[in-house]
Amino acid sequence: xxxxxxxxxxxxxxxxAIQELEESALPEGDVLVEVSYSSLNYKDGxxxxxxxxxINKFPAIPGIDLVGRVISSEDDRFQPGMHVILxxxxxxxxxxxxxxxxxxxxxDWLVPLPAGMSEKDAMLIGTAGLTAMLCVLxxxxxxxRPDDGEVLVTGAAGGVGSVAVALLAKHGYRVTAATGRESExxxxxxxxxxxxxxxxxMSAPSKPLEKQLWSGVIDTxxxxxxxxxLAETSYGGTVAACGLAGGPELETxxxxxxxxxxxxxxxDSVVCPTARREQAWQRLQSDLDLALLGDVGQEITLExxxxxxQKIIRGEVRGRTLIxxxx
Length: 327
What we know:
This protein has helices spanning 42-49, 119-141, 159-170, 185-191, 199-203, 223-232, 255-259, 274-287, 305-313; strands at 2-10, 13-21, 31-40, 65-73, 83-87, 102-105, 110-112, 151-153, 175-179, 195-198, 214-219, 233-241, 263-266, 297-301, 320-324. By secondary structure, the protein is an alpha/beta fold.
């Protein structure tokens, strides 16, 4: 028997409860993992609260991230005792996820835990940190260099934004952090931000082209914020877009692209190829100051997930939220 946070649909509403389950209840897969930690992402918040169409089939176990130890495996790449990371691939959505002491998964979804990285650090990084690193790679591949000018990070107090600010600052970029929470200014400065910009300013309607401010942008918000960021990006700049916390719509024009040679690069972490994931995780191990992770996250229990799911939807959670699952 093992413990899990199980979601179900009752009278049209999503409800959650801690349950004891048998391993036979787990879905198909070729690797059985004893889960140590999961994490709470915005998508998990939508799933647990039922405020977004994340899960279609109930009952379900949420958790798009997990890290743990292989118990048994039919995949030669993963032997019992190995420590592995899972992010994305529809786990916690279409396939039972990480908020459970056991998970049965496909080997193709797993990445070995990098040498020198602890399980706790891996989940403090999680999907959010992986996405942040993929965005930094997109800026680098777009030719954005530290001496080119200021880089903007939107939604900077969130999980992706926090790690993005820390990664960029580590490499000498001058970072402007955009946030709707003025109270987080000191926190963002500690992560390495040089300037703070308000959400209100970033959300204000923009002309097709505004004053050129940013050599690069990592945007986690979308909608009006992304439209303004594009209008303010300097000639030859790259904008890495990875989120839609502000909405999926984008009202812009072709002018930043054809008059300023701006690149808009979408960044996906859900079905990102394994080789790219491994590259990003190795870069996270070498580039991210893990000492900062204590300042970008908090640890909760499975029992606290429903409370924190409401908080993350309301924008009240700073940085990463780590879920202690196993002993």
